[in-house]
Amino acid sequence: MFIKNIEIGEIFIPLARPFKTALRTVNNVEDIVIKIETDTGLTGFGEAPPTAVITGDTKGSIVTAVRDFITPAIVGMELDNLDGIFRKLNSCIVKNTSAKAAVDMAIYDLYAKQHNTPLYKLLGGNKNLIETDITISVNPIPEMVADSLDAVDHGFNILKIKVGKEGLKDVERIQAIREAVGPEIKIRVDANQGWNAKQSVQIITAMEDKGLNIELVEQPVTAHDFKGMQYVTSHVTTPILADESVFSAEDAINLIQNGGADLINIKLMKTGGIYNALKICDIAEIYGVECMIGCMLESKLSVSAAAHLAAAKGVITKADLDGPSLCKIDPFTGGPLYEENLIRMNETPGIGIEKVPGFNE
Ligand SMILES: C[C@H](N)C(=O)N[C@@H](CCC(=O)O)C(=O)O
Ligand SMILES: [Mg+2]
């Protein structure tokens, strides 16, 4: 069975509410989707969001990378030569990790379908239920408190609070939310690179002194500031999670060996897909570091690919896979079940998504 062609489409899904971080505000999911077909008619699907402020990828660059570089490199290759396909995918163009991720997940989708197995079982089959957090956008404090209470009402036990735009005021934000939701709810804080190293230590220490019981703080400083990550990690007791600082296996090794983080957030859109994400899982396992699986502003297709990886690997102990919960509608058929805070894997072969809008059957 060989790869016959790659079709490119686009999806548009309005968000239930604007998504706001220290880096950007977004109102809709507007992602590139791809369909890979084999000579036997088997199809695999993938999705790539244009998260320009984090990965550098735009809709135009994703389409160009898939159409002009990846397609000529892998069309005609035998699906059984999985390793050869991924080596070609990763060497035919540098960077462009979101385009690579879309193609990588479609190949894994096909491979698992060919073997009539759900992808998570093929990759390791560690668990079939995942608990995700939900993101609370950065807004005025009363709005964030109301959003947090609403999320808890809807069954979420873990909140990921976006901060990083107003320095020390973030302590008030988290204090107000903690007082409103009570002690049982887990609170994660994501600064999206919004603080500097000294400011981070001041803010996180203030949260510790107030007993706000923060589970972890994600990416306090600029992505390339590995020394800053190391400074923060060594000066606070709250665990520090590296997100934008870790795209590749090399980043993970550098950061871990230099004490630049306690935890690593793996996202398929940063690694270029599951093939490279598995390398980070192995590195983390070797060093005894736990991982979170995260997502960009993505819909159910690519988030489900990430869910399969999370379900497969024991080293992935935390999930930020709330993309589908942030969308107003679910335009897909099939896939894992999203039940508020729980993602339940099922027995459908591949990733499980059976119909993707924009492609004819
Ligand atoms: C959507 C997810 N909860 C999230 O916050 N992901 C990113 C930001 C993604 C984006 O801007 O699209 C993160 O920083 O963890
Ligand atoms: Mg983050």
From TrEMBL:
User: Which EC number(s) does the record attach to this protein?
Assistant: 5.1.1.-
Which positions does UniProt annotate for Mg(2+) binding? D190, E218, D243
The UniProt keywords, alphabetically, are: Isomerase, Magnesium, Metal-binding
Pfam families this protein is in? MR_MLE_C (PF13378), MR_MLE_N (PF02746)
Please state what class of enzyme this protein is: isomerase
- Residues annotated for substrate binding in this entry: R24, T135, K160, C295, L297, D320, D322
Q: Which residues form the Mandelate racemase/muconate lactonizing enzyme C-terminal domain?
A: 142-239
Q: Where is the active site?
A: K162 (proton acceptor), K267 (proton acceptor)
Tell me the superkingdom of the source: Bacteria
Quote the protein name from its UniProt record: Dipeptide epimerase
